[in-house]
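anyone seen this seq b4? input:
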Amino acid sequence: MTIFDEFWSHVDKTGGPDRLKWEPGEPCHGDGSPCWIWIAGLSKKGYGYLYSQRCRQVLAHRVAWELENGELIRPAQCVMHWCDHRACVNPDHLYLGSKQDVTLKLCARGRHNSQTHPERQSRGSRSRHKLTDEDVREIRRLYRAGMRQSELAKKFNVSSGHIGGIRDGRSWKHLEDE
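predicted toks r here
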């Protein structure tokens, strides 16, 4: 059995138990063809995987794309799913994109980490556009009055480093102290 045959022997080409299909009417219109579901091993996130000869975990949809297209995927490239089904390895449902394309697609579908788990963002990135000019003036006033930097950070839900930048004038330079 060839590597090609071995790989495709772990695929259900009927669309899987729930007969998933890439349907017309989706954001990227499909042709109604069924997803080919990887049935060997699935990651916690639902992606199919297998192990390479070097005992390294490899994503099945990347291998499917390489087998079908006969060329290696550059490290900066991602294999993306038109059908949005992570276990699908149907080459007609796969295309190459960049990491930026992945982020844009996730944002468009409301599944980007910043939308689904805002608590996982760093406090600095959450707060960058959150403070108003009045907040910054209040931070500076409270600091001069003796409030500690860590207390200010909690009060305004920003990082202590952000407060330090405001305090020292490294950020929010456009605001003059009154």
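Residues 115-129 have pLDDT under 50 and may be disordered. The first strand starts at residue 11 and ends at 12. kinda curious what u guys think
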